[in-house]
Amino acid sequence: MGLEAFRLDGRVSIVTGGSKGLGEAMAMALAKAGSKVVVVSRNLEGSHQVTKRISEATQQETLALRVDVTRKADVDQMAREIVARFGRIDILVNNAGVNIRKPLLETEDLEWETVIEVNLKGPMLCSRAVGQIMVGQRSGSIINMASMMSFVSIPGRASYSTSKSGLVGMTKALALEWAPYNVRVNALCPGPFVTPMNKALLENKETHDFFTSRIPLGRFGNPQELDGAVVFLASDASSFVTGSTLVIDGGWTAQ
Q1: pTM of structure
Q2: Which of the four CATH numbers 3.40.50.720, 3.90.740.10, 3.30.300.30, 3.40.50.300 does domain 3-195+224-246 have?
Q3: What was the pLDDT predicted at 197?
Q4: DSSP H helices in 98-252
Q5: Which of 36, 78, 112, 254 has the lowest CB atom count within 10 Å?
């Protein structure tokens, strides 16, 4: 197997939460590897801006869609529209996510439910809608964006850690269910990255120093440092990889 196994020419990728941060970076990486890319977000204008940048940089065909991943009707319509446009779906990156940083005793029911809905129900709905298509094709790769906090945690992250731990469990179950159809399901588990979601952490010296002191590499990751991992899991280079978790955290969970 040569480097051509990493190419995604002719394939169709979906990236949820693709209008900024890690989602935008991964959508660009998939396009650079040869894939057509659908950028999905609740922010349609943001998705259009990202697809414009991707098209200009890669000359790949792109599509921007407004989708609330917690709404079944939105997700099912998304799948139908993409198949009508491109004829197939090869790669799904379940990246849309939220984080509410509060101790459990201060967390309102609605806040808890919001995190679980977006981070866990959303990937379930998207995987079910797209997985049905992939099973019919007898091919596909689903990449769930979990977190290093699927395995470790810190105070104030009860809802987030719960949602991301659940996502790893779902990844393993779906990998077993769909392996007979050559549909692979894996999880990427990033640590702290420089993203809009982490803006408050980066701008506060105390929290910034707290995080970097626990990262053996001594810094936050840059979004482009996920490029290789997402292309690997999306491509034939990982054709014998399913039900796995790939942690990219600067060494945090090695301790």
Answers
A1: 0.96
A2: 3.40.50.720
A3: 77
A4: 109-116, 122-137, 158-178, 199-203, 205-212, 227-234
A5: 254
